[in-house]
Write a structure and sequence with these properties.
Chain A is an alpha/beta fold. Chain A has eleven helices and 14 strands. Chain B is mainly alpha-helical.
Chain lengths: 312, 236
């Protein structure tokens, strides 16, 4: 549905987006993650035909960005900070958006009603946008971006500046839309992307760092299996036995807790080696009691930091 | 064309049908009324030559005030990004904005049509000259509106747009005033291309195709420049 190929945009002689290629499938919700200034907004501005790419191209539903008027009909766009005309009331603003998209007057009224319901705007339909809270303005922007029933939604930080309740509402809304539409949304809030998106990509300094589901990204970052366990009894016997059955095991950490138990962290370079199972079998063989055993995963935060942090 | 109309309508609601819009309109009408009244009572003649001569000066101060927000505010508030990602061509945006401004000015000029009506009751008015002058005044306003819009396309601050517009219009106006002090070849150019010179031709009651074409040509040039300023912004 959205396919970017070697998308590049320069500001002066600085790369804002550098050789970015990715694909978002139809009906998928894709998250675009990155620290501030990573090129998220620039990428979206190119995909919505606002900024022409310096080189490379992208296509929406098979249409190249060069056919910009056709592409714009397919895309609904919510820019960062959800700009709108503050002097208009919500209804007039949606009317204007509808006319600009060429929605015939016969169906425009119904469409506006439908979108107002979907975005919870019925109460404020005749209030001036200036008087509305940030959360409502964001919803007005979202309603306007979907008014022409686009197949593809591009949302630039749709939840910034909202309070936790509003964030959850907007997330639900996006999730619901995602069932029928292709959605690309940017954010620097990780739990949000994890909660809403099917897949995500992480970009930094305009370059793609990683792309996949949150599980895939965690595995990729961790590069192996990783198990955490609490042992009652002699941990050393257990670990020695385990090392005979599985070579290449690394003992990441071994620590005696105040209550006399031992906490161990072990890892193995092969992610599919059933490390936890082996540990359990070893414990049974050596008559050692395991109080706790769990597969640890690198959190998305770790992945994010590893891919974007520290590299200045 | 629907897009252009939709934009026009929106401009009307947020630019003209607002306190700021009313203030500018009323101030323009008060100022023009003052100049009309003062020349009528001083000269005691049923003739509008003096008023038409002052009109360009009123334009210089009022038209940039009407045009300054048209594009500058969109660029400032980020709403231009919305407009530019709707299925509209940049030229449609320029035309929509321009036509709303031209509509506003035309409306004000139609209201000043009361002056010749009053005069024709008082004395014998040369209606042909007045009509030619109004046509000239409208064409001049159309050109100045395009210049004002161009100023608004250059910046994202309405105040700067006002000042740039004011300066551009002053240059156009003073060009004609300063012509006698300039070298001969430049005088020829100014007589040929100066909008005020052509406006003065029309004030004499003569409408020539050359005058009309000059106004239309210059207006198109400034609209194209506005278009170019908007397009270039995205490539930078």
């Amino acid at each position: 549905m959205i396919k970017a190929e070697h998308l590049t945009r320069m500001y002066g002689n600085r790369f804002a987006v550098n050789d970015l290629s990715f694909e978002v499938k139809r009906g998928e919700v894709m998250g675009l993650l990155g620290p501030n200034g990573a090129g998220k907004s620039t990428t979206m501005k190119m995909l919505t035909c606002f900024l022409p790419p310096s080189s490379g191209d992208a296509s929406i539903d098979g249409l190249s960005l060069a056919e910009s008027i056709k592409v714009r009909r397919l895309v609904g766009y919510l820019p960062e900070h959800a700009p709108s005309y503050h002097d208009l009331d919500v209804e007039a603003y949606l009317q204007f958006t509808g006319k600009m998209h060429g929605i015939p007057s016969a169906t425009r009224k119904d469409k506006i009603g439908e979108m107002a319901r979907a975005c919870g705007l019925e109460q404020v339909l005749y209030r001036r946008i200036e008087e509305l809270s940030k959360g409502y303005r964001q919803r007005v922007g979202l309603a306007a971006s979907m008014l022409h029933d686009p197949q593809c939604l591009i949302l630039d930080e749709p939840t910034t500046g909202l309070d936790p309740n509003q964030i959850i509402e907007i997330r639900h809304l996006i999730r619901r839309l995602g069932e029928q539409k292709t959605v690309l949304l940017s954010s620097h809030i990780l739990p949000e992307v994890e909660a809403v998106c099917d897949r995500m990509m992480i970009i930094d300094k305009g370059e793609l760092q990683a792309l996949g589901t949150s599980d895939e990204l965690s595995k990729q970052a961790q590069g192996g299996a990783f198990v955490l366990a609490t042992v009652k009894g002699d941990a050393n016997v257990l670990l020695t036995h385990l090392q005979t059955t599985l070579s290449d095991i690394t003992i990441v950490n071994q620590e005696t807790l105040p209550d006399g138990h031992t906490q161990i962290e072990i890892s193995h370079p092969e992610p599919d080696c059933n490390l936890a199972e082996q540990l359990f079998l070893a414990a049974v063989a050596k008559d050692v009691v395991l109080l706790e055993i769990r597969n640890a995963q690198a959190s998305l935060e770790d992945v994010f930091r590893e891919l974007t942090g520290g590299k200045t | 064309m629907n897009v252009v109309m939709a934009l026009c309508q929106k401009e009307w609601r947020i630019g003209l049908d607002t306190p700021q819009g009313y203030v500018v309109s009323i101030a323009f009408l008060l100022a023009s009324g003052f100049f009309f009244g003062s020349s009528l009572f001083l000269n005691g003649q049923a003739d509008m030559r003096h008023w038409f001569a002052v009109l360009p000066l009123l334009y210089i101060f009022f038209i940039p005030a009407m045009s300054m927000r048209l594009l500058a505010d969109e660029l400032h508030d980020g709403t231009y990004e919305l407009l530019a990602t709707m299925p509209t061509r940049t030229i449609d945006i320029v035309l929509g904005k321009y036509l709303s401004l031209l509509g506003h000015i035309t409306f004000l000029l139609v209201l000043t049509g009361l002056y010749p009506l009053t005069l024709s009751l008082l004395g014998n008015l040369d209606s042909g000259t007045v009509m030619a002058s109004f046509l000239g005044a409208w064409l001049l306003a159309a050109l100045f509106a395009a210049i004002g819009l161009f100023a608004s396309s250059l910046t994202s601050h309405a105040m700067i747009a006002y000042i740039v517009g004011l300066i551009l219009l002053l240059v156009v106006f003073l060009m004609t005033q300063a012509a006698p002090t300039l070298p001969i070849f430049m005088q020829d150019w100014i007589v040929m291309l100066g909008p005020i010179n052509h406006y003065q031709n029309m004030m004499r009651g003569v409408v020539s195709l050359a005058d009309v074409m000059l106004f239309i040509g210059l207006t198109v040039i400034f609209l194209s420049l506005s278009w170019f300023a908007l397009v270039r912004r995205r490539w930078r």
